[in-house]
Design a protein that fits this description.
The complex is a heterodimer of chains A (245) and B (172). With 245 residues, chain A is of the alpha+beta class. Helix content of chain A is 23%, strand content 35%.
Chain lengths: 245, 172
């Protein structure tokens, strides 16, 4: 039986709709890889506005349950989401060879508009400008990490002209622009390298690498999204968990 | 045009226009134009996207026309005839229509650098508007970058230039 929106329920409509859609995926009613109904169809099925449907879908895209493909539609994600790590977490990443020095080469520091689902990942509208920074990190001449950072231009326009070869963007936010990073949300998965990524990292196209996606927040505002592709043979991760007091 | 305004009096902020790097595809450019200009009802003319390099240097401009040209089937590109188009070329518009759906998706994956109008001329903020008008007429441009000390300061459009020229012409 179709779950319905309960208008007597004090919970917001988009939250109810998010749960209904999530349950359809968890119950396999909507199979992995399947295209979900359009926003208009969901409006009709659940008797809610387009804004409510859009907010619910964006939330599920943000959580990783759905994938939006420009011009094609919205699909059930093939990735499994791990939930429930609600502890204070400190996260470190280490090179396998401890104590090595990185060199950084800035491949791009320019401006673009959000494409694909970057607007959803950053929680901004599609017509906002983004600062795009692409950097390649090498150790003793060997490329080990390719990082792309996306920063809404209105958040910190001056980053566009900063020296990001010798400075960490994180530190620029905190020390120079007074934007304390209060939360970082990260996802680690296996990625298969595109031709461009493989060429830069010195690997074969299609070979597996570690992909770390991170969302940086200052208070309630997301200030940056980064996508870091790492050679799997050069990194290990260390996660420390500490229960909230 | 004596005592006319200078470029800085009428240039607009570059962030009025969507931006993209030159390696973006035509397909991505179409998405940007739809999201930033059409869906948002932004009444900016000409509707265009500014194309930049890796170091945020302006490389070119992309309008709806360049996008359509970029999607055009390859062998239908115009010839360089001195006089008008032939009947055979007119007939090609029918072939264009039949080939278009098949080829346009493939051609939409080309980088925008292949189809943009490269920036060849520019003005500085203290130039008179007449100089901007000159470049627009002789270089067939609807907008011009305003550059000072190698830095992009803004954009001047034909509509503002026309406004200034019309004030001079119609002044009593």
């Amino acid at each position: 039986m179709e779950s319905l929106i309960d208008r007597e329920n004090p919970q917001k409509l988009y939250i109810q709709l998010t749960e209904i859609i999530k349950n359809k995926m968890l119950n396999k009613e909507w199979q992995v890889g399947a295209q979900i109904p359009t926003e208009e169809e969901l409006c009709t099925i659940y008797g809610v506005s387009k804004a409510t449907v859009r907010t619910a879908i964006l939330e599920l895209v943000r959580q990783g349950y759905l994938i939006r493909q420009q011009g094609k539609g919205t699909f059930v994600s093939k990735k499994v989401i791990s939930e429930g790590l609600t502890m204070i977490t400190s996260f470190r990443e280490m090179m396998l060879e401890a104590g090595v020095e990185f060199s950084t080469k800035v491949l791009a520091q320019t401006v673009m508009m959000p494409t694909d689902d970057l607007d959803v990942k950053l929680g901004i509208s599609e017509d906002k400008h983004l600062i795009y920074i692409k950097r390649l990190r090498t150790v003793e001449g060997d490329p080990v990490l390719l990082q792309e950072a996306y920063i809404p231009h209105h958040i910190c326009p001056s980053i566009l002209s900063e020296d990001v070869e010798h400075n960490s963007i994180f530190e620029l936010f905190e020390k120079k622009y007074g934007k304390k990073i209060t939360k970082v949300k990260g996802y680690i998965e296996i990625a298969y390298l595109t031709k461009d990524e493989a060429g830069l990292l010195g690997l074969e196209t299609g070979s597996a690498a570690l992909l770390l996606s991170q969302h940086f927040f200052s208070g309630d505002t997301q200030v940056m999204y980064t996508r870091s592709v790492k050679r799997p043979d050069r990194f290990k991760f260390s996660i420390e968990l500490e229960k909230k007091a | 045009m004596p005592n006319t305004k200078t470029v800085k009096d009428m240039m607009i902020d570059v962030f009025e226009y969507p931006h993209m790097p030159y390696w973006f595809t035509i397909r991505q450019a179409i998405g940007i134009i739809k999201n930033s200009l059409i869906k948002s009802d932004k009444c900016i003319h000409p509707q265009a996207v500014l194309v930049f390099d890796e170091k945020y240097n302006l490389m070119g401009v992309l309008t709806l026309k360049e996008i359509l040209e970029g999607l055009e089937p390859r062998f239908l590109k115009p010839s360089t005839k001195a006089q008008g188009i032939s009947g055979a070329e007119e007939d090609l518009s029918a072939v264009w229509a039949s080939l278009f759906p098949k080829e346009c998706k493939e051609r939409a994956e080309s980088p925008v650098s292949n189809v943009m109008i490269p920036v060849k001329s520019f003005v500085s903020p203290d130039d008179e508007v007449a100089k901007a008008a000159y470049h627009m007429v002789h270089d067939d441009l609807m907008l011009l970058p305003v550059i000072k000390g190698g830095k992009l300061m803004g954009i001047i459009r034909m509509i503002e230039v026309f406004q200034e020229v019309s004030d001079v012409v119609l002044k009593d």
